[in-house]
Design brief:
This protein has 545 residues and is of the alpha+beta class. It folds into 2 domains: 221 residues, Amidase signature (AS) enzymes (Alpha-Beta Complex), CATH 3.90.1300; 226 residues, no CATH class. The chain is 27% helix and 23% strand. The protein is built from 14 helices and 23 strands. The protein has a 12-stranded mixed beta sheet, sandwiched between helices. Strands 1-4-3-2-5-6 form a 6-stranded mixed beta sheet, with no helix packed on it. Helix 3 packs across helix 6 and helix 6 runs antiparallel to helix 14. The longest helix is centred in the C-terminal third of the chain and has 25 residues. The protein starts with a strand and ends in a 21-residue tail after the last helix. Keywords: Transferase.
Length: 545
């Protein structure tokens, strides 16, 4: 090993070519050594900026020091664009790719960063859904014409900025189904190829619309956290399909400025995570003072869709989780049916499936047509001699449905508000001691294979009413937690593979912190676990291609 003490301006005589060096702190200053520790340079503290943290660097023959990034391959096609900081408070597109038709993702060393109370997310690698503005980078909304027509964003969305302010490192923008409408892989995804779901045989639909953030989080151990959005299930459904922790927050918990809208009355920003502890700390950074973690929990659990026996592996997983949860809380369990409760409470009103029949579909269609489509079509036509831009079948169908229905936005909002007021006051009310009087736990769906190479007859319309819509209509928080996995026989691999099993937890509106705290405590008690990347949430294992 060669060790030399020198001034900064003498490094040029010692290092004749650019190489990677690792910085470490010594009693006299800093030592830079190459990766093999064959050549080291000691630099006195007085000649080096103290703001340069420990970690790997490039050193040039003229004495300059550059931060090093490692390039990872986006083999799952999760990213729409990968980024690096531009040095001016914004970002630039990374001008690199990797063989195999994959984008390259530039990731800085964790050694550069040390979390502090002011920067709790220092060094946390973050991917964001490509409907959020990021200063210096274009937003695509999943549409090629939109991407190529509009300029780069001149500011960053407040939700993203909150995470950056907490120290998170944005490594790229991640694919969304077009205009955040629901799309099924692969047929509905026309402009951009749908990201791959790593679970099971690797050819299962990853669900939508936050498909890219979920795919990346489930696939890449070097990616810590991803930011998505949930209007009608766009975080929760991909979380369930790909075995992740994911949350739809209380409506209005963080600004949705500079985020492409679907329906402002429903739109929310949420997080995908593998580790519930990082999930909770990221939520605190994202929602700031609008969330308070607390460990005084409800002792009443409302259960929806849970089995009455453990006769199958699937039933046993669900039953075991519910037993462990209620034992941990010392809580009572009541089977809950929202339609029956509505009927008993509101006998003179229409049944819920009729009252709310097209509420979600109409409001999203009419609002997005007004807020997104009309301006986009006009701008594009003006620039292209009256031509129309291409739009995928799913948003076209949904916008058309809104155009054809004579209902007004005010009509639709009135039905939603009627349900919201009833549900938040009578079914899932707040409590002065536990924040939420009840914890509502439901089974979202049984995991069954949904192959991405299936031919479709056309795009599907949104579900008019289901238990997953309770949070959408009420504004209450709804969070997905993975609890295990279920075997199936894959027609792709001709082998037994596994798919994730999840449940959802809800609390009173504004009581998000109760669920985040509870999930952390359940993790500490061994009832929930940190999920792994790869084809199994339990065992990890290599992704199949």
């Amino acid at each position: 090993m060669t060790t030399t003490t020198c001034r900064t301006d003498e490094k040029a005589r010692l290092i004749q070519s650019i190489d990677i060096y690792i910085r470490s702190t010594t009693t006299e200053g800093s030592r830079f050594c190459d990766a093999a520790l064959r050549n080291c340079v000691d630099v006195h503290a007085s000649t080096l900026d103290d703001s340069i943290p420990d970690g790997p660097y490039f050193m040039s023959s003229w004495g300059s020091i550059f931060q090093a990034y490692r390039l990872y391959s986006d083999t799952q096609a999760s990213f729409s664009e990968t980024t690096i900081p531009d040095g001016n408070g914004g970002f630039a597109v990374l001008p690199a790719n990797i063989p195999g038709q994959s984008l390259a993702v530039a990731v800085p060393s964790r050694l550069y960063f040390k979390p502090t109370p002011e920067k709790p997310l220092a060094g946390v690698r973050l991917g964001i859904k490509d409907i959020y503005d990021l200063k210096g980078v274009k937003t695509s909304n999943g549409n090629r014409a939109w991407y190529n027509h509009y300029a780069v964003a001149d500011a960053t969305a407040p939700a993203v900025q909150n995470l950056i302010n907490a120290g998170a490192i944005v490594v790229g923008k991640m694919k969304t189904s077009q205009f955040a409408n629901g799309e099924t892989a692969t047929a509905d995804w026309v402009d951009y190829h749908s990201p791959f779901n790593p679970r099971g045989d690797g050819y299962q639909d990853g669900s939508s619309s936050s498909t890219g953030p979920a795919s990346g989080e489930a696939s890449y151990p070097w990616l810590d956290i991803t930011l998505g959005s949930d209007t009608g299930g766009s975080i929760r459904s991909p979380s369930q399909a790909q075995g992740l922790y994911g949350n739809r927050p209380s409506h209005g918990l963080v600004s949705m400025d500079r985020v492409m809208p679907l329906a402002p009355e429903y739109d929310t920003a949420g997080i995908f995570a593998r580790d519930p502890r990082l999930w909770a700390s990221t939520a605190q950074a994202l929602y700031l003072d609008n969330i308070t973690l607390q460990s005084t929990y409800p002792t009443s659990v409302l259960a929806v869709g849970f089995p009455t026996n453990s006769s199958t592996r699937y039933n046993a997983l669900l039953d075991n989780f519910l037993r462990n949860l209620t034992s941990f809380l010392s809580a009572s369990v009541t089977a809950y049916n929202v339609q029956e409760s509505w009927k008993a409470d509101m006998p003179n009103e229409q049944p819920l499936p009729i009252l709310l029949k097209n509420t979600y579909e109409l409001l999203t269609a009419k609002e997005q047509a007004k807020l997104v489509r009309d301006t986009f079509v006009s701008d594009y036509a003006q620039a292209h001699d009256g031509r129309l831009p291409h739009v995928d079948p799913s948003p076209l169908q949904r916008w058309g449905f809104g155009d054809e229905d004579p209902s007004t936005i005010e009509d639709v909002v009135a039905a939603k508000t009627k349900f919201m007021d009833w549900f938040n006051k009578r079914q899932l009310p707040r409590d002065p001691r536990t924040c939420s009087k009840h914890l509502l736990v439901y089974v979202p769906r049984m995991p069954t294979p949904k192959y991405r190479d299936t031919y479709l007859s056309g795009p599907s319309r949104p579900f008019p009413f289901s238990v997953s819509r309770l949070s959408v209509y009420s504004g209450a928080p709804d969070m997905v937690v993975p609890i295990g996995e279920l075997a199936y026989e894959s027609i792709v691999t001709n082998h037994t593979e596994v798919l994730p099993v999840s449940v959802d937890m809800m609390a009173a509106k504004g009581c998000d912190g109760v669920i985040f705290s509870l999930v952390q405590d359940l993790h500490a008690a061994g009832i929930l676990t940190t999920v792994k990347t790869g084809r199994s949430i339990v065992d990890g294992e290599d992704i199949l291609y």
